Amino acid sequence: MFDIRPVGYVIGLLVAMLGAAMLLPMLIDIVEGRGHWPAFLESAILTFLIGGMVALSCQNVNKDRLTIQQTFLLTTGVWLALPIFGALPFWLGATEARYVDAFFEAMSGLTTTGSTVLSGLEDLPRGILLWRGMLQWIGGIGIIVVAMVFLPELRVGGMQIFRSEGFDTFGKILPRATQISSRISVIYVALTLMCTFGYLITGMNPFDATVHAMTTIATGGFANYDASMGAFGGATEYMSVVFMILAALPFVRFVQMTAGSAAPLLRDSQIRVFLATALVIVAIVTAWQFLRLGDISEIAFRKALFNTVSILTGTGYASADYMLWGSFPVALLFFVGLIGGCAGSTSCSVKVFRYQLLFASIKVQLRKLHTPSGVFTPRYQGRRVEDDVLSSVMSFFVFFTVTLGLLSVALGLTGLDFVTSLSGAAAALANIGPGLGETIGPAGNFASLNDTAKWLLAIGMLIGRLELLVVYALFTLRFWRA
Fold this sequence. Notes:
Blueprint: H1 5-21, H2 23-32, H3 37-57, H4 68-86, H5 88-92, H6 99-110, H7 126-154, H8 173-201, H9 206-217, H10 234-247, H11 251-258, H12 263-267, H13 269-291, H14 298-312, H15 327-336, H16 352-370, E1 379-380, E2 383-384, H17 387-413, H18 418-429, H19 437-440, H20 451-465, H21 469-472, H22 477-481
Antiparallel strand pairs: 1-2
C-alpha cells in the first residue's frame, strides 16, 4: 500500500518553515510604518499552523527512506504546496491581487521564472518586495538540492550522469538532502552576500542591493522597479553579469573548490561550453548593433552583454527593450532562452549538458553512417555515455518540444496572439521570465492576460522547473501500480 505520510511530513515541515519566513518581511513592514504588516502576520499564522499540523500528523514514519514513487510525489508536491501558501501575502496584502494573480506571482518566484503580474513596484511596501525576493532565493537553493539529490536518483532527463558527483546512496534520500543542503547553503549564502556587497559599491541602497542579490543568485529576475535593471547605472549591470554567470555554474564545483580542489571546476566541459556560448552570442548581438543599427557605443555593448546573459541564464532581468533591436536579435534571444545554464545550478531551461550529449550522439551516428563496421560510443567529459542516459536525454527533448507546442496552442485557444502564446509558453516552460511582444515583452508584464492563460502558464512553470518527466510520471497508471 502506498504510504503518503513521509511525503506529507516533509511538505508540512517545509510549509511551516515558509510560514516562519513570512515574519521577516512583516518586521520590514513594521519598520517602514505603512501599516501593511497584518497581512504577513495573518499569512504566517495560517501557513505555519497548517504546515505544522500536517507534519505532526505524519511524523510517526521512517524518515530515512523513500520509495521512488514517494520521491516523485514529494518533488512535485513541494513545488505545488509552497506557491499555494506563498501567494497569501500577495492576496491579503497591499497588492490586493486576486488569488490567480497571487498564485502566478508566487509560482513564478519559487520556480525562479521571474514573470510578474505586478506593476508600480516602486510604490509597493518593502515587505512585499522583500517577499518576492525571498521566494526566488528559497526556490533557487531548493532547485539546486533537487538537481543534485532527486533528479539523478530518479534518472530524469539524463541527470543520472551526475549521480557519482552527488554524494551517493539512494533510499536515504532525506538525510542526504540535509547533508547536501548544509554544504550548498554556505556557498549560496556566501555568493548572496558577495553580490549584495557588489551592488552596494555600484550605488544601490542596502535594501535594493539585498533583494536584487537574492534574485540574481537565484537567477530569478524579480526586481524592485518596473524598469528592472534599467533603473540602475552601467556599473550595476556589469556586476549583475558576473553573478548571473556564477549562479549558472554547477554548485557542486564550488563545494569541491572550497574543499581545496579547483581542478574539477577548470576541467568541466559543461562550464567551458556555457561560457563559450555566452561569448559567441554576445559578440553576434553586439555586431548586429554595430553593423545594422550603427551603434558602436559602450552602452550598446553593455546592453547586449547584460540582456543576453540574463536570458541565457534564465534570470529574466531587462535593462533595455530588445524588441526594438530588430527581428534577428529577437529571434536569436528566443532560442538563447532555450539553452539555459549548467546542471546543478540555479539556472533553468534545457541545460547545456543535454545539448552536449545530443551533439555527441549525432556525431556518433554520422560516424556510423560513414563507417558502418566501426564501433563508436558517445562520450561526455571523457566518460562513456550509457544508452539509458542518451535515451533519457532524447525523451526530455521530445517531451520539452511537445509540451512547448501544446502549451502554445492552449494559450492561443484562450485568445492570445501567436507571438504572445509561443513566447509565453517558452518563458514559462524554460523559466526565463519575460516573453516577446508588446504585452509580455521586456517592457511589459503578464497582468493583462486572461485568467485561464495565467493558470496555464503557472502550470508550465512548475512542469519546466521540475524537468517535465517528474510531473508527467504522476499521471501514469504504471507509476501508481509500481
